[in-house]
Amino acid sequence: MLDSKALIEIRRHLHQFPELALKEYATSKYIRHIIGNFKQEYLEIRTIEQLPTATLVYVKGSNPKRTIGYRCDIDALPVTEKTGLDYQSKNDGCMHACGHDIHMTVALGILNYFSEHQPKDNLVFFFQPAEESENGGKLAYELGVFEGKWCPDEFYGLHDNPQLPAGSIGCRLGTLFAGTTEVNVTLKGKGGHAAYPQLANDMVVAASEYINQVQTVVSRSIDPIQSGVITFGKLSAGTIRNVIAGEARIEGTIRGLTQTMIEKIDSRLKAIGQGIAISFGCEVEVELNQGGYLPVENNPELTKKFIDFMQNNNQVDFIETAPAMTGEDFGYLLHKFPGTMFWLGVEDSSQLHSDTFTPKEASISKGVKAIIQFIEFRMSNK
Ligand SMILES: CC(=O)N[C@@H](CCC[C@H](N)C(=O)O)C(=O)O
Predict the structure, then answer these.
(1) Cβ–Cβ contacts within 10 Å for residue 277, how many?
(2) What's the CA gap between 381 and 374, in Å, rounded?
(3) Catalytic annotation on 285?
(4) What pairs with residue 157 in β-bridges?
(5) N or C: which end of the chain has fewer CB within 10 A?
(6) Which CA distances in Å does 62 have to 113, 123, 378?
(7) Where do the domains of the chain lie, and which CATH numbers do they carry?
(8) Within 10 A of 215 (CB to CB), how many other CB atoms are there?
């Protein structure tokens, strides 16, 4: 069984070579290499031609009543790491700033254990590309990856959480994470000389107005008891100070804890786009793409079992958490299969997606242990 030193070595390797969504070639090669060193007797490794960076592993149960799925995500973010760690990212402008290196290592630790201790039920491990964007979970589902013996009766997955103590487990009944919609707004007007605004149609001003008006959506259009977030993380326009920009592009993300909320915000963003087009006499295209980022809704029965198990396990520090506005395309898979998503505490003062994010590695072995214990408990259950 991989000890904590071996797990940390794996995690540090993964951390140094992060790759963006659907480009995780070295990552998946490394994952397969590590799995290739495990005892193979109960394992079947599968790759998918149309989703080449995905890896699935089937573990044959000794007396199966069901197939339990376990998913982890493998992609990284376009963030330049500033941790200064001696194992910091060697891939410029790319970082495991959301802790997917931790997720992969935990999954490998669990898989390693079951490769040596044949489980009673069948297990399916899914090392999923493209969680941060590009809808890897949905893509896999639509390719029919989970058909036949690869279809889990129940599916589990975790996300790391820097706000929780290292190695603790957090979860809740109901919605754990928000649904998200990616939004891209393109505004087209007319470029020109900075000195002659009357002859041009300035899209820096129109884009600013669009962004300002959108700030009223959460404060004025939605029920204050419910939650919604709109963040524009990227704005681009223009080439130089003295040329009026004829085009602007805004990229953002919308979050809501219910699908109704997401749809309500989506429709307001479209309507504001139409208003800006009329008032500025320009073209405004509002593209909305939810992809597979549906709200992460935990299955009540399975999640109750999960929470009861973790709460009654004196080796686990369990924390009941509030819903979070993070998104996860595991939400899509949980709309197809019953299951549970939960947090693994990694305790850090930096938040997810920050360039100084440094999860505590002690959380890895604790997470592996707690999840193995849960899977064993689940296999002993009807
Ligand atoms: C856990 C986490 O941080 N997930 C990402 C998921 C991204 C969703 C989608 N690409 C979007 O930006 O809307 C997050 O940003 O919450």
Answers:
(1) 18
(2) 11
(3) no
(4) 71, 341
(5) C
(6) 15, 11, 15
(7) 4-177+295-379 (3.40.630.10), 179-289 (3.30.70.360)
(8) 11
